[in-house]
Design goal:
This protein is 67% helix and 1% strand. It is mostly helical. The protein is elongated, with a radius of gyration of 21 Å.
Length: 273
């Protein structure tokens, strides 16, 4: 399949260098970098499209793949910008109460990249990208997804948030420090976590082992050196999130995006004026 997508690659590369996109690598949400979640949404979207069709050739003829890629890259941009701008509302609150903020921000970023690359997007493409961004929370936001592309991203975002946005620290790491005599605040500092998360992990381990006290848990760990993370569902979340984080840290967020299988299905003639 010979398609000219050089301009699309230039646009995406420039977008990945935008200060607000790079900021996503510095912002965490529930112990996971926003950039990691962003890549996860893209990968889940890819997998969903592969399942719906045998291969992506036919799918790419009916779906705006470029809008999906760009929409995903900037869908959580406000998680960084609200910190920079000192906004009082969270990203989730903005999606409900200030959709205008989300839309203007998405449009401004597209304008920035058009200016930086001298590549002008078709109006329909820009509208599709903006709708993906403003509707990705679905029923938990002000605007519901009304296009195929927006629904794909919304479903992927929900799955990622449910299964892969969780601090992968387990009770065994906490108990190792407890066995050494460290106090709660010292452990939280070493593991970069909250006391609430620490208590949650210990509680889950006690439930799985049928123990009543943390002292019993420490004794169990001292003898066995292994502690269950939690029930099957929670364990699945922790392990999948840990693999995701390791992959992004090893290969790099921007490299993973630029190497997406979806890139080869972009067609400059359908994207730019």
């Amino acid at each position: 399949m010979q398609i000219n997508n050089k301009k699309a690659q230039i646009y995406i590369d420039s977008l990945l260098q935008h200060p607000l996109v790079r900021q996503l690598e510095l912002v965490e949400d529930q112990g996971v970098k926003v950039s990691t979640h962003t890549y996860d949404v893209l990968k889940i979207s890819e997998d969903e499209m592969k399942r719906e069709f045998i291969g992506l050739d036919e799918y790419s003829k009916t779906i705006d793949v470029f809008a999906i890629i760009v929409g995903i890259i900037i869908h959580d941009i406000s998680k960084g910008s609200i910190r920079i701008n000192g906004e009082k509302l969270s990203h989730s609150q903005m999606m409900i109460k200030r959709p205008d903020y989300i839309i203007k921000e998405a449009e401004k970023i597209m304008e920035d990249i058009e200016e930086a690359t001298n590549l002008k997007l078709q109006d329909e493409i820009k509208k599709n990208i903006a709708h993906i961004v403003i509707s990705h929370h679905g029923k938990w936001g002000k605007i519901k997804p009304s296009t195929k592309e927006a629904n794909i991203v919304h479903k992927a975002d929900v799955y990622s948030a449910k299964y892969h946005r969780i601090n992968p620290i387990g009770a065994d790491e906490i108990l190792r420090y407890m066995a050494e005599g460290l106090q709660t605040d010292e452990i939280c500092k070493k593991l970069d976590c909250t006391s609430g998360m620490l208590k949650d992990r210990l509680k889950r381990a006690k439930i799985e082992l049928g123990l009543k006290s943390t002292k019993q848990l420490v004794n169990y760990y001292s003898k066995n050196k292994r502690i269950p993370i939690g029930d099957d569902f929670f364990t699945k979340r922790i392990r999948e999130t840990s693999r995701l984080i390791n992959s992004v840290e090893k290969i790099g967020f921007r490299n993973l995006i630029k190497n997406s299988i979806l890139i080869k299905y972009l067609d400059d003639g359908k994207i730019f004026e």
